[in-house]
Amino acid sequence: MSHCPPMTFSGITAQTYQELLVKAQAQGLELNGPSGSTEYQGMEFTWSYDEAAESLTIQCTNKPMLIPCGMIESRIRGVIG
């Protein structure tokens, strides 16, 4: 197992963050609150949202070696849009 570098997104308003939580939950991710960790399809993720800075950081902290970080990052960017 290995990890990917953190991804930081700026310009994420409180309303946008709430919309992202709904999107993520619709895809089976258990995200609640401004920060935490979750498991999804055998991978582990952490996230941290800073409302004052309008910044969201997401990191895959544990993944199978055969899944490239680029694939994970692409999927995350697709959700955040």
State the main characteristics.
31% helix, 4 strands, TATA-Binding Protein, 81 residues, single chain, 2 helices, globular, alpha+beta
Structure description:
With 81 residues, this protein is of the alpha+beta class. It has one domain: TATA-Binding Protein (2-Layer Sandwich). Helices cover 31% and strands 32% of the residues. It has 2 helices and 4 strands. The protein has a 4-stranded antiparallel beta sheet. The model has no long low-confidence stretch (mean pLDDT 93).
What share of the residues lie within helices? 25-40%
Q: SS-based structural class?
A: alpha+beta
User: What about the largest sheet?
Assistant: 4 strands, antiparallel
Total of domains: 1
Distance between the termini: 27 Å
Q: Which strand order does the major sheet show?
A: 1-4-3-2
Count up the helices.
2
Any idea what the radius of gyration is?
Answer: 12 Å
Strands, helices and their partners?
Blueprint: E1 7-10, H1 14-26, E2 35-40, E3 43-50, E4 55-62, H2 69-80
Antiparallel strand pairs: 1-4, 2-3, 3-4
Summarize the structure in short.
31% of the residues lie in helices and 32% in strands.
